[in-house]
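## retry 2 of 3
previous attempt timed out at serialization; input unchanged, resubmitting
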Amino acid sequence: MNDTIALYDDKRWSQRNKTIKYDNLLYHKIMNLKKMVQT
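## retry succeeded, writing output
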């Protein structure tokens, strides 16, 4: 039972990490675009 929960939690955690990484990439892209627009 506990193993199943741990596995599920692990999947959820990796999914969250992927989302955070994606958000960071998006953030940097937007910041770069803003810099390009400013100069």
